[in-house]
Amino acid sequence: MAKPGRDEEFTAYVSGRLSWLRRVAYLLCQDWHRADDLVQTAITRLYVHWRRASAADNLDGYARTVLVRVYLAEQRGGWRRRVRVVRDTPDAAVSDELADLDLRAALAALPPRQRAVVVLRFYCDLSVEQTADALNCSTGTVKSQSARGLAALRRTLRPVEHQGESRA
What pLDDT, on a 0 to 100 scale, did the predictor assign at position 4? Predict the structure, then answer.
């Protein structure tokens, strides 16, 4: 039987960080409903391992790692290929900054691993080493995926008039 303090501590943490986890999940998957599912799975896993998680030096980092690993595991699985979610209307919760740059579409075009690296490095502001630890890969992989992801974003976000010009 769980101690009442454990549940209260977990509930307080999740209540305070839910919107942040949801934003990170959205940046990874580009769909608010799917982001909610990812967060739900991640916080369920976080609850199961709450003793270890709450003892971590960086609880936010632990939770973010769980979320990213849930996302990547789903990408590898067959569920995403079998189930297609049809988007009726754009979600009103999308910030104007992201809509102005069409960054969402550019992020959506990246392969899942590159997207995870870009989100962790540049949205979550993790170091190369922290990102490698969260993704359970080498720092060299993080560096190469960052470079490829940023190059793809630059190509996608480059103004139309510059896309046809050759490089000097």
Answer: 59
